[in-house]
Specification:
The protein is an alpha/beta fold. It has two domains: 114 residues, NAD(P)-binding Rossmann-like Domain (Rossmann fold); 178 residues, NAD(P)-binding Rossmann-like Domain (Rossmann fold), CATH 3.40.50.720. 31% of the residues lie in helices and 16% in strands. It is built from eleven helices and twelve strands. The strands form two sheets. It has a seven-stranded parallel sheet with strand order 8-7-6-9-10-11-12, with helices on both faces. Helix 4 links the parallel strand 4 and strand 5.
């Protein structure tokens, strides 16, 4: 009997062909995450993506589901406890976003150092004006919370600007392109060095509202905060207080505690804040990179019974 892989996202003909070549003995069925075919999912051994209303079908005792490959790096919205109890292997899309998100991070940093964000506003008003305080990235320090794919790519590029790079991770282990790495418990010490404090962290019980008033007060006077990780890792009120007081010079934010950010939210009106609508990871190469991860994992799954890349540790929630 042919086993099935159900993908709940759009794949090009070439991407479909690559998956079928990597998965002999499996049929590939395309579904829709917004309108999933539950009967089809009830027969799936492997699912790529997730969708609203699929939980009960996929987690039934008789479900043959063995492995879920998410379409996102974040997994906090999945029924993790139930999936762990059922022994379902879970892999995420970590690594897909490194290049586009690093580009957004440097977009924020260059906007701030060269006052390009105010230049755009001046252009809209036909105003010929410079603040006269333009700076540069050379010699600045980037403190990057999270030394995974996104953090490492950011640190690698920072070296091209001759920046100092300080990482923060759970283990504090050395990582290429970082001059030094602190543990998460040393975050307060680390952020004090940063001209830019960059948050790339996933949302876990340990990181929820990790960036609070205490951390922002420990930041260097006049530094910038960038968050492209998860909105709930930041205490928004504490961030706004640090911005309003001038302790932080600005913030580049792609993620928020409430999304979409409500139209009446004060952050919209703060000229020292640059907002993007949780699109830092978007790229026309997204599906190609996701399929590359899946194919690598499919080969490992067929050989050893488990995917080798991006396997989520349920106890850590990433």
């Amino acid at each position: 009997m042919t086993k099935s892989i159900v993908c709940l996202h759009t794949l090009s003909p070439r991407q479909q062909e690559l998956i079928r070549e990597a998965a002999p003995g499996y049929s590939l069925i395309l579904g829709n995450s917004k309108d999933p075919d539950l009967a089809m999912l009830a027969e799936a051994e492997i699912v790529i993506g997730w969708g609203k209303g699929v939980r009960d079908t996929l987690l039934k005792p008789e479900s043959p589901l063995r492995w879920v490959q998410t379409w996102s790096a974040g997994i906090e919205k999945l029924p993790l406890d139930a999936m762990e109890d059922k022994g379902i292997l879970l892999t995420n899309a970590s690594g897909v976003h490194a290049e586009p998100i690093a580009a957004v991070i440097f977009g924020f940093m260059l906007l701030f150092t060269r006052n390009l964000h105010t230049a755009v506003r001046n252009q809209l008003n036909r105003r010929w004006h410079s603040e006269g305080n333009e700076s540069e990235l050379t010699g600045k320090t980037a403190v990057i919370a999270g030394t995974g794919a996104i953090g490492s790519e950011t640190a690698r590029i920072a070296k091209a600007f001759r920046m100092k790079t300080v990482g923060v991770s759970r283990s504090g282990k050395p990582v290429d392109s970082f001059d030094e790495v602190y543990t998460t418990s040393q975050l307060q010490d680390a952020v004090g060095q940063g001209d830019f404090v960059i948050n790339t962290l996933p949302l876990t019980e340990e990181t929820k509202q990790l960036f609070d008033a205490e951390i922002f007060s420990a930041c260097k006077q006049g530094s910038y905060y960038i968050n492209i990780g998860r909105g709930a890792t930041t205490h928004t009120e504490a961030l706004m207080e640090a911005l309003n007081s001038g302790h932080l010079a600005g913030a580049g934010l792609d993620v928020f505690e409430a999304e979409p950010l409500p139209r009446e939210h004060p952050l919209w009106g703060m000229e020292q804040v640059i907002i993007t609508p949780h699109c830092a990871g978007a790229t026309d190469r997204y599906a190609d990179r996701l399929v590359d991860i899946f194919i690598e994992n499919m080969k490992s799954y067929l050989k050893s019974g488990a995917p080798a890349r991006n396997l989520v540790d349920y106890s850590r929630r990433y």
